[in-house]
Write a structure and sequence with these properties.
By secondary structure, the chain is of the alpha+beta class. It has three helices and seven strands. Strands 1, 2, 3, 4, 5, 6 and 7 form a seven-stranded mixed β-sheet that branches.
Length: 157
């Protein structure tokens, strides 16, 4: 094994977890979740809504990243964003706190005006906060990677 890859397929190629994150916005603020205390990676920190790519419906395969984004928003904060246009923000690589190599893809989009987000998955989402980018920059629970994504998403709203 060479480079940053921590895992390989049976064929010897790099294997990664694919994670999708969504930075939702409304009225000049970002919806961020406080990650649950039992989360394996970055517990208690602020993040966009997101999770691992999974093929739960064969119809999602052609748009697996977007389908993952929509599924995670529904599962974690109880909001259907099926009609929301998602805009690509960035992608990156990290090693999770428990050692998994992760490719992270970040999207942004508007939270529907009538949506009432709540911690639908309390073990994953300890709370929901609404912050401007400037407020996130002064929040000690907002990690550098979330701040970087917010700064890159700012001009895309």
């Amino acid at each position: 094994m060479t480079g940053l890859n921590a895992a390989e397929t049976s064929g010897g190629r790099p294997a990664f977890v694919v994670n999708v994150e969504v930075l939702l916005h409304r009225d000049g603020r970002w919806l961020l979740i406080k990650r649950g205390a039992e989360e394996k990676h970055a517990p208690g920190s602020l993040a966009g809504v997101g999770g691992k790519a999974e093929v739960t419906d064969p119809a999602d395969v052609p748009n697996i990243l977007e389908a993952t984004a929509r599924r995670e928003v529904d599962e974690e904060i109880g909001v259907d964003i099926s009609g929301v246009a998602l805009t690509y923000v960035e992608s990156g690589y990290f090693t999770s706190d428990d050692g998994d190599p992760v490719i992270n893809i970040v999207f942004t989009g508007p939270l529907p005006a009538d949506a009432q987000p709540f911690p639908a998955s309390p073990e994953e989402v300890a709370g929901i906060v609404w912050l401007t980018t400037a407020e996130a920059e002064t929040d000690s629970t907002c990690p550098p990677w979330t701040l970087r994504a917010l700064r890159r998403a700012e001009p895309l709203r």
